[in-house]
Amino acid sequence: MTQKDPLAELPWPGATVTPSEACSRAIRGVCTKQLAGSRGMSALGRALFTLALSMALIAVYSWHGLSDHPSPIVRTALIGAVGWFGAQTLLVFATLARPPGKRGSRALRLGLLFGTPLVFVAYLALVSTEHFAFSKFSHGAPAAHAIGCGVVALIMGALIAGGALVAWRKTDPYSPGISGAMVGMVAGLASGSGMSVACASHETFHSCVAHGLVVFALALAGFGLGRRLLPP
C-alpha cells in the first residue's frame, strides 16, 4: 500500500470561486476593446499591387524619356521595358502569388534569382548602341553620369521594393528571405528597364553598371528585409 500525501486531501482556498457576472463582463470588455474582424489582402491583390507599382515606375521613366529626348533607340528601350514587365508578371505569379510551400522548389527560385539579373545585364549589353573603353567610362563625365543614374535607379527601385514588401508582409513562413529577394529583383527589373528609357546614354558599360546592377542590389536588400518582414 502507498501512503497518500496528506496535503492532497486539503481544499485549496478559493479554488471554486468564480468571478461575478459583472466582473466577467468587465474583463471581456477590456480584452475585446477595439477588436474587429479583418481580412488581409489576397495573394492576387498583393500580386496586382506589386505589378501596379512596377508599371507606375516604368510609366514615369517612359514619360520622362519620351518627352525629353524621343528617338528610335528610346522607343526600342520602351519596347524592351514592356517585355521585361511581362517577365516581372511571370515571376510574381509563379514565385509569390501561389501559397507558401507551392511557390516552386528552392533550387528553381534560387536559379531565377541568380539567372534573371544576368540575363537582364546581357540584354542591356546587347541593345547598347555605343561602347567606350573602360578607362574612358570610369573617369570624368561618363563616370559621374553613371553614378547619378545608378543612384536614381536605386532610390526609385527601393521605393517600389519597400511598398511591395509591406504588401507581402507576414505571408511566408518557409523561405521569407528568398521571397523578399524576389520582390527586390522585380523592383530592380522595373527600375533598370525603365531607366534605360529615361536615360540618354545607351553605352554598354553605362547601361550594364548604372541600369543593371540595381537588380542585384535590390535583390540582396530584399533578402535581408524579407527575413524580417515576411515571416508571420
Q: Give the termini separation.
A: 53 Å
Mean pLDDT: 88
Compressed to H and E, one letter per element, the order equals HHHHHHHH
Q: Given the C-alpha coordinates, what overall shape results?
A: elongated
Descriptive report:
α2 (43-68) packs antiparallel against α6, α4 (106-127) runs antiparallel to α8 (204-229) and α7 runs antiparallel to α8. This protein has helices spanning 21-31, 43-68, 72-95, 106-127, 134-137, 140-167, 176-198, 204-229. It is mainly α and 232 residues long. The protein has one domain (58-229). The mean pLDDT is 88. The chain contains eight helices and no strands. Helices cover 71% and strands 0% of the residues.
What's the quick description here?
The chain is mostly helical.
Task: Name a few traits of the molecule.
elongated, 232 residues, mainly alpha, 8 helices
Please write out the topology.
Layout: H1 21-31, H2 43-68, H3 72-95, H4 106-127, H5 134-137, H6 140-167, H7 176-198, H8 204-229
Helix pairs in contact: 2-3, 2-6, 2-7, 3-7, 4-7, 4-8, 6-7, 6-8, 7-8
